Amino acid sequence: MVILPQDYIEELQAIFGTDTAAYQDLMAQPPYKGLSVNRLKARPETLLAELPFATEKSPFYADGYYICGESDGVGRHPYHQAGAFYVQEPSATSAVTLLDIQPNDKVLDLCAAPGGKSAQIASCLCGTGLLWSNEVVRHRAQILLSNFERMGVREGVVSSCHPETLCEALGGFFDKVLVDAPCSGEGMFRKDPEAIGEWSREHVKACAERQFSILHSAAQAVKVGGTLVYSTCTFSHEENEGVIQAFLSAHPDFEAVDVHEPFGRPSGLACGVRITPMDGGEGHFAAKLRRMDGDADTSPSLFTLPSRPDKQRTEVLHALADILADVPQDRLYLSHDKAFFLPRYYPNVTGVGVVRAGVLAGEWKKNRLEPSHALFMATPPDVCRQVLRLSLTDSRVKDFLQGLEIDTDGSTPDGYTSVTVNGYSLGFGKTSHARLKNKYPKGLRRA
Ligand code: SAM
């Protein structure tokens, strides 16, 4: 049985009223589990029919689903490794619904690791616009990058920067900004009962102060007319309505936008929605604001690639043309022997802790190009010159994910070869004499 601190129950009574008892009862039930489909790689109707567990549509996001029943091993499923879906608590998807992503939007996800909401945003953008995902904690930014690569994000940037520095450098650049703020995590208590021990009124207050400060920084990155969504996975008034009210008082250039979503329950503000376990999710709050006014455009211009051809660039392009049927030459950028395909809308900024811009295509080593795992994860198989197409029941899928060399049955000539499972890219290897030398990254290999 889960024991909740008395102080916390008192706070809840002010928020849930007569539903407090229902919430306490629900604490004894297992948490909701869910996934969101990655449209960069998959179509929901095809993917869901192929998964070995039942799913049910969630009300919180167009491509969000509950995982029904036993969900052990979902994260080890080959389609997960292929980035066809992201495992995500169902109500956590609601903030991106409020963002209302449109094709070609430039979007900043300011507190982005591990990357669930970024995965949704990338899926909604579907290869258009730009997703800039930032995570201030450096080692968490690496996890974010790994999820970017798995999901096959091409038009994206991962950075690790303090929100104030980043948003100042990117002032007025974004159509949409998401602040999914660190919080006291009351909506995680069922999933992670140990987190209950960290709850205190002082902790809630400290979280609210930090949240205000992050939101205050985020404001400058929003272009005039653009949208700012604030979200947390906590129920607290102080961290939710309180932070929004304080922000609106300090920022007359922003207005609250009424939300009318078909999920959750009204919050204390018309611009916000609260989701509780009684509403089909573990717990989330999201609020929507719009920037009405601001300085004349101070946003940075776009980065222009050096146009002067050089020998190394020509050689890299030749090597890439052996691997891909279509090389986006105009986006190729070489830096310290690494080759990247930069995003279309990459802003010209420095000093903001960029960990990755676009896709790492490969590394130039000993006069040849060693392609990267990320390149194959972000390239549709039909653009790759060589593909080893495996079915889900083929034992070579497991062998490949374990890092073993596999047979190609002579189906592909020698050279770099994309490996797919039912059409979803898993990575690549190098074919030689009907054997595929495994290039699946060591850190991702299964035991
Ligand atoms: N949006 C993420 C997702 O969907 O996967 C979850 C983000 S989590 C709720 C909040 C993130 O904010 C954490 O990764 C945490 O490291 C980061 N964070 C912590 N302190 C911060 C600060 N002062 N400014 C910005 N981000 C911070």
Q: What can you see in these coordinates?
A:
By secondary structure, this protein is an alpha+beta fold. The protein has 3 domains: 6-291, Vaccinia Virus protein VP39 (Rossmann fold, 3-Layer(aba) Sandwich), CATH 3.40.50.150; 311-341 and 359-376, no CATH class; 381-444, Nuclear Transport Factor 2, Chain: A, CATH 3.10.450. The protein has 13 helices and 23 strands. Strands 5, 6, 7, 8, 9, 10, 11, 12, 13 and 16 form a 10-stranded mixed sheet that branches. A 5-stranded mixed sheet has the order 19-21-22-23-20. A 4-stranded antiparallel sheet has the order 2-3-1-4, sandwiched between helices. Strand 21 and strand 22 form a beta hairpin. Helix 8 runs parallel beside helix 9 (201-219) and helix 9 packs parallel to helix 10 (241-250). The longest helix is centred in the middle third of the chain and has 19 residues, at 201-219. The protein is globular, with a radius of gyration of 23 Å. The protein binds S-adenosylmethionine. S-adenosylmethionine binds at residues 111-117, 135-137, 140, 163, 180, 182, 210, 214.
